[in-house]
Amino acid sequence: MLDRLHTAKGAQRTLGLAAGIAFGFLLQKGGATDYGVIMGQLLLTDFTVVKIMVSAVITGMLGVHLLRSLGFARLHPKQGSLGSSALGGLIFGVGFGLLGYCPGTAAGAVGEGRLDALFGGVVGILLGAWIFAALFPRLRRSILNWCDFGEMTFPELLRTGAWNVVIPAALLLAGFLLLLERTGL
Amino acid sequence: MEWLTAGRWSPYLVGLGIGLLSCLTFLLSDKALGCTTAYDRTSGMIERLFRGRKALDRPYFQKFPPEVDWQWMLVAGIVIGSFLSSTLSGQWRLQWVPPVWAAAHGTSVGLRLAVATAGGVLMGLGSRWADGCTSGHGISGTLQLAVSGWLATAGFFAGGVVTAFLLY
Known about the structure:
Order of helices and strands of chain A: HHHHEHHHEHH
Number of helices of chain A: 9
Number of helices of chain B: 9
Largest sheet of chain A: 2 strands, antiparallel
Order of helices and strands of chain B: HHHHHHHHH
Mean pLDDT of chain A: 96
Helix content of chain B: over 70%
Number of strands of chain B: 0
Oligomer: heterodimer
Shape of chain B: globular
Largest interface: A-B, 125 and 126 residues
Radius of gyration of chain A: 19 Å
Strand content of chain A: under 5%
């Protein structure tokens, strides 16, 4: 039944819009669409963004792996390589520091009236994505494949069951949040 | 209904909500939350406006065709959701230069837009280079325990922290 829903394009566009409205609402209520909050995170003075992300990851990690164990969900780990994930991540990071929003929170910041997120952010990201599309034929045969590890997950890497990694990872992340609270950050 | 008009929710509550939302998108849409493929598709739509169907010859646009899909609607929804939330709390207002930026670098709109645009271009390039952003890798990749997600997220924050310290 759900497989038919997954391939129904019109229904999926509606579900996407609904999920986006919920996502944008949550990001704004959390302060993650605020330039000051994001820069506070990157300057390591305000850990709001990390608190949101880590509690989302703990919840989602437990929930999605539970759905998967019950046969209701499939994982979609992205393919990666050192040249793609690490180098691309660093390029993104420099942009993150200069812009002070990320692609999702920039959309949210536009929604609350921030014009630097629109004319600087959204326009810049569109241009950057287009530049990548133009460079892609050259990059895909070279740097993007450097040290390719495919769609690897940590349970596969460690050759163990998913829950043997999920539980310790969730506990470690929860401990990290507790530590943040204890240190008053 | 005071919680709807509140200016700020606890970050843990917001994180819990985003985590549950991720479970729902996996269940109902067989998809992980992510944002940047939508930007890539939109850049293809814009190029098609200028160059017509020739734009579709680019191998990257054959991989991700310029069309409105689930994720494109997700990003459109984020704008609406944030608009609703900020209107309910009375925080919605037009702003060119964020106060934190103005305090350190002055109130020049041109300077802020120039730096934001430069950052946006690097972010757009980097997000496609790494095949994901703070949502697709930072939340969805890490929660699936994907090696690519954890590695890219380390890169996002390493690059971001160094740049922020150079800027402030």
